[in-house]
Structures are given as structure tokens and as C-alpha cells.
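Weekend entry, working from home. Most of the wet-lab plans are on hold until the incubator is repaired, so I used the time to fold the two sequences that have been sitting in the queue since the last round of cloning. Logging both here for the record. First:
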Amino acid sequence: MLGLSRKISLFFFVLMLSFSVKGNSDTVNVDHVYRIVDTLPEFPGGREALLRFMSQHIRFPVMNRSPQFQGTIFVTFVVEIDGSLTNIEILRRNGHLPEDSDEQVIRLVENMPKWTPGRNRGKAVRTQFNLPVRFSIAG
């Protein structure tokens, strides 16, 4: 009878341990790229600083400064835990833009300073971020 009591106690302990491990809400997967997070990644200085950086650093060839060249390029990248940007890719484009516009947007993102990383459950996590880059020539 004593053996049965030990088996029940051991089973109960293992059962409780598995619930406590699975129910730990502080656990985040550091290798996973999150698409939905509690706090979004942020460019240093916020949205206004991002817009200022983009307008100062995008190169638009002089010969293409025509009102007919307008549109948006959607770029995606991963904001790493240290704030660096990786996996930069063009998602899609719309409008009428010069052929080298994709390369200009990729170069722009590659030259951005480190961002504040996204956070999930209070911890910095790798976060996918999609950014629209709009080209518009003021006439």
C-alpha cells in the first residue's frame, strides 16, 4: 500500500511540474520572428525622426524627378533583439517608379541606425516590420 501512495505522489508531482513549465508566461523564443508583439519596434526618435531620415537619405535620380514617377514600395525586415535590421526584402510596389527604386529602398533600410527592438512579455524579441516608402515628386 505504501508503494501505491508513492506512485500517486510522484505522478501528482510530475503532473504539477508539467503544468507549471507549460504555463510559464515569461518564456519567449529568442529564435522566433514575431509578427505580433506587445510593443512594436521603433526607429530612434520615433515616427517623425524616421520620416526625416527617409527624406534625407533616399536617393532619387535627377533624371527621374518627373511627376510621372510616383508610387509606394513596401519593404519588410526583421528588427533583431539588438536593434539591427536583417532579412530586408521588397514585398511589393505600386505606381510608376524607376527600375532602381527597389535597390534605393533596400539601401535606405541597410543604412538605418539600430532601432529599439519589439517587446513581448517585457522581453526584447526579433520582430518582423513592414514599412511603406512613398515616392512623390512635388511639382
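Second, folded right after the first finished:
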Amino acid sequence: MRSAFYNDLHRFDLHKLKWYPIEIKSNKTASVETGPSARMNAAMVIKQGILYVYGGLKELDEKKQVNIIS
């Protein structure tokens, strides 16, 4: 079974029991793409309205994965 790696974010509404995509605001002054890199098994927390994504696994190729610590 092959794993899939995505860089999209969703939020879960506990009242409606439904998932909604989160659109990431782009930084017009930055020349790089904003948002998390594609990964799986990351930890996340929201503190003072800021979402922090930490760690996870990133795919290097079909047979190699690497731990992300950032």
C-alpha cells in the first residue's frame, strides 16, 4: 500500500460534523510559496490565532521517507 503526501489543510466543524478546506493567504512580498510542505503524521497546534505545524514525514521518492523537524 502506497502512502500519499498532501500539502492542503482542512478544518473540522464539530457542530456540522463536516470538513472544510483552509485557504492559505499568500505573502505577496515573498518569492516562495507559503503554507506547509507536503507531509504526513505532523503535529499541529493553534496558539493565539497562529497555526503551528511541526514534524511529520516527507517523501523523497517512492521508497524513501525522511522525518521533518521544523
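Plan for Monday: verify the second prediction. The chain is about 0% helix and 40% strand.
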